[in-house]
Specification:
Layout (H helix, E strand, L loop, with lengths): L1 H24 L4 H17 L1 H11 L1 H21 L3 H29 L5 H30 L1 H22 L16 H10 L1 H22 L2 H8 L4 H18 L1 H9 L4 H21 L6 H18 L1 H9 L5 H10 L4 H18 L4 H7 L3 H25 L11
Main location: membrane
Protein name: Lysosomal dipeptide transporter MFSD1
Subcellular location: Cell membrane; Lysosome membrane
Length: about 400
């Protein structure tokens, strides 16, 4: 018994030592932290096209159930493991499940609602998703304090299994009596054909130009920026984050209503959103010191509108893609705001700049924010080009569409 106790003690001490060493190994430098953020976004972004291809073949019901199962498995792995590689694998499973679920839910909307209502319903669906994240965070944050992280993650895994069962029982890919979608062509041909349509590229660059700013703000530690660089109290910074969520929820229906009413003017709304984004991100760093609270509030509100604004990219994909390849088109569009051309490139660049400029200071952040401008230039230029190409193609196909003036 004494020898067995000694072996158990050595094994437990070794496990505790490995966990402590793993915790000590966690990097604290901005450049390395941004690298972990990049890895997290790569998992989600990298699954978009594979998820879209699967969605076109098996339908939303199977994909949503699979996504719930993957997320439940990832949460369960996080609950039961003490090893860092397995914890990373758990986060990868959660990211894969998220990618499966997101585009699959939006694939259901045009199947169940008339075309004139789809933009608004899509915006409301996105709003409900954001609201669900906020509401679910409250009990999840309370459980670890009361029962520990293992219980919290096991509870999340249990909820995931329950949602998978409910999705399997309740979700249908299309209303009863709907004609089945024709089989999809080979994978390589479909990706090439979907990307070749200028409407898909218009959605891609729409999503890129409107989404990357708010995503970068969130991933690059918005609280340290507001507290360290702008000198706000943590409580005030927390209020601004709440304002960000409320602004996104409030602005959500507006792009949907305008997009449904003026389908050939969506690109103008996109350019207005990007222009407002450029204006506030130019005004705040241009000041010699920390910005006043009203300007920071305006900044948070304006960039938060980019979240609902990015949904216009999915409207482009729906409008210009046949139903058999709509999942692939949505996957391509969704990459626009997360691919290395946008969020990943900006996050990594900002992390390197912050590292060499001395950390989360005002001057360092002001210099790092200049990484936004190349993405804005590319996005605006390509939106202007692809919208003309899209309308020209529609006109060639016999549709009566307004052609924008050449600039």
């Amino acid at each position: 018994m004494g020898a067995r106790s000694a072996r158990c003690a050595r094994r437990n001490s070794g496990r505790a030592g490995s966990v402590k060493s793993a915790r000590r190994a966690l990097p604290r430098r901005p450049a390395v932290l941004s690298g972990f953020v990049v890895l997290q976004v790569i998992v989600y972004a990298g699954m978009q096209i594979p998820a879209g291809l699967l969605l076109d073949r098996v339908g939303s019901r199977v994909m949503i159930v699979a996504g719930a199962v993957l997320m439940a498995a990832g949460q369960g792995l996080l609950a039961l493991t003490e090893l860092l590689p397995l914890a990373v694998a758990g986060r990868v499973l959660v990211g894969m499940g998220d990618a499966f679920t997101f585009i699959s839910v939006f694939r259901l909307v045009p199947r169940w609602f008339p075309a004139r209502r789809v933009p608004l319903i899509s915006q409301l669906t996105g709003m409900l998703g954001q609201l669900g994240q906020v509401l679910s965070a409250i009990p999840f944050l309370a459980v670890p304090n009361a029962a520990g992280w293992t219980t919290a993650y096991l509870s999340a895994a249990t909820v995931g299994v329950l949602l998978a069962v409910l999705a399997l029982a309740a979700i249908r890919d299309a209303p009863p009596g709907t004609t089945p979608v024709a089989a999809t062509p080979p994978r390589r041909t479909r990706i090439r054909e979907v990307w070749a349509h200028p409407g898909t590229r218009l959605g891609f660059f729409t999503h890129m130009g409107t989404r990357f700013s708010i995503t970068t703000f969130a991933l690059m530690r918005d609280v340290p920026y507001l507290v360290t660089a702008q000198g706000l109290a943590r409580a005030t910074a927390g209020v601004l984050l709440t304002v960000s969520v409320l602004a996104a929820l409030t602005a959500g229906p507006i792009p949907g209503v305008l997009g449904a009413r003026y389908p050939f003017r969506r690109s103008r709304l996109v350019l207005v959103i990007i222009g407002a984004d450029i204006t506030v991100w130019t005004a705040v760093p241009a000041l010699p010191g920390p910005a006043p609270l009203w300007l920071l509030t305006l900044l948070v509100v304006v960039i938060s509108v980019g979240g609902p604004g990015s949904m216009i990219g999915f409207d482009h994909a729906r409008m210009f893609s046949p139903d058999r390849s709509l999942g692939t088109a949505r996957g391509i569009v969704n990459i626009g705001g997360f691919l290395f051309l946008a969020t990943l490139l900006v996050v990594e660049t900002m992390g390197i700049v912050l590292q060499h400029a001395g950390g989360y200071g005002f001057d360092a952040f002001r210099l790092a924010r200049t990484a936004h401008y190349p993405i804005w230039i590319v996005a605006v230029t390509r939106v202007l080009i692809t919208r003309r190409e899209t309308r020209s193609r529609m006109a060639a196909e016999g549709m009566d569409v307004p052609l924008p003036r050449r600039r």
